[in-house]
Design a protein that fits this description.
The chain has about 230 residues and is an all-alpha fold. The chain has seven helices and no strands.
Length: about 230
């Protein structure tokens, strides 16, 4: 039987599906806990966790406003902020020995990518209508339609691969780096690496969140002649 890295959930079952689902549930619970703790006692002058979350939301609002525009950004903030926080939590738990990052599993990242793909296409059709939405796939001139339309379809499908494999590859690489480091060095030596991996967890969540914003923008804001 294939040997797996020790995890606390692995003490109950070594099934890959159980390991993935249990760590996904843990990331989900961590996300809800952080959200609850940051909002349970709101203050006019924020401090502690509330201050961190307000800074995070201000950043999300600023990004959404810049990319989606003043009139459109508000309705997408809940989705974008939730994705960012959930991906961050999923990235972060893998840094703790005895746990695995769900984002280090292609099934998890592929599921997230499919959710984003379906959602931004749905929003594009809802906002612009079926005809106008798919009309912008045809290119700038009519005689390029046979060439441009298939290219646009492939381009959109490739976003699933880009979103899922970028996140999966980076987090899986971080996990392998941490495993090797812990095998070669005592516990107190890898502390700088833990700080670096924490930064990478934030960075990868930001990239996934930013790409989601860009894809929603490109689907919902269609310029005439594009």
């Amino acid at each position: 039987m294939e040997e797996r890295l020790f995890t606390f959930f692995g003490m109950y079952s070594h099934e890959p599906a159980f390991i993935l689902l249990s760590h996904t549930a843990l990331a989900f619970a961590l996300t809800l806990t952080l959200a609850f703790l940051s909002t349970r006692a709101l203050k006019t002058v924020p401090s502690g966790l509330q201050n961190i979350f307000e800074t995070f939301l201000e950043g999300v609002i600023s990004m959404c406003k810049d990319v989606l525009g003043e009139d459109n950004y508000k309705k997408y903030i809940p989705l974008i902020a939730t994705i960012g926080l959930f991906v961050f939590s999923a990235n972060l738990i893998g840094i703790i020995p005895g746990f695995e990052s769900p984002t280090g599993n292609i099934n998890f990242t592929l599921s997230l990518a499919l959710i984003v793909f379906v959602y931004y296409n749905y929003e594009g059709i809802r906002v612009n209508g079926v005809v106008k939405y798919f009309a912008h796939f045809k290119g700038p001139v009519w005689w390029l339609v046979p060439l441009m339309f298939p290219i646009e379809i492939i381009s959109h499908l490739s976003r699933i691969v880009s979103l899922s494999f970028r996140l999966f590859g980076n987090i899986k690489g971080d996990d392998l780096f941490l495993i090797v480091l812990l095998m070669l060095a005592p516990w107190f030596i890898p502390l700088p690496a833990f700080a670096l991996l924490s930064f990478m967890a934030i960075l990868q969540a930001f990239i996934f969140m930013m790409l989601t914003i860009v894809y929603i923008s490109s689907a919902t804001i269609i310029e005439e002649g594009h």
